[in-house]
Amino acid sequence: MGLVMKFLSIFLSFIIQFAFSQEKNSFELDNWDTTMRPIMLQAGYLTTMIEDTLGAEIVRVEMDIINQPKDSFRYLFEGWTYGIAAFADWRVIDLDVEIYKDVDGKWILIEKDDSTDNNPLIFVTPSATGQYRIHVKAYKFLEGFDAAHYGLIIFH
After folding, report:
1. pTM exceeds 0.90 for this model
2. How far from each other are the two terminal CA atoms of the chain, in whole angstroms?
3. For 145, which of 29, 91, 120, 122 could close a Cys bridge (C-beta 3.0–4.6 Å)?
4. How far is CA 7 from the centre of its chain?
5. pLDDT of res. 54
């Protein structure tokens, strides 16, 4: 699993860098801090990589503004290994993801990303079928910003 995670982290970083290297049109240049287009482009590149390159199935996609921590809830099933890829636009320096399992009404941390980047990727193989909480937090923004766009893709 370590080799897969390393490969995916490197490949995801490459894809996201590629998305930002594309030429911007005049609308994007004038509205670069408000347009969702960069996040949607990143989601498109990641979808291609996840589905075509890895042959994995995407089971959830979300995109939103992040200016405070966000929680997403999903039933995950025992026997599957899930990838959780989060990504943020250029205004986020550090985006992290944590996965919690509901155990008797308490959320217990089972996996987290704590690297300093804006495209965390983690894998989790649930020990039991149940509801899980995916917590996304922008720990650090580019100076002068306190909000950005982010995306989340869950796949298996």
Report:
1. no
2. 14
3. 91
4. 16
5. 85
The 3-state DSSP class for residue 51 equals: helix
Query: What CATH number does residue 48 fall under?
Result: 2.60.120.380
Count of structural domains within the chain = 1
Q: What is the span of the domain harbouring residue 144?
A: 2-155
Residue type, 100: Y
- C-beta atoms surrounding 114 within 10 Å: 10
Residue 93: the pLDDT is: 94
**Higher-scoring residue by pLDDT: 15, 140:** 140
CB 107 within 8 A of CB 100: yes
Model pLDDT for residues 71-102, shown as the tens digit of each residue: 999 999 999 999 999 999 989 999 999 999 99
Q: Are 87 and 42 in contact (CB under 8 A)?
A: yes
Supply 69's token pair: 């921590």
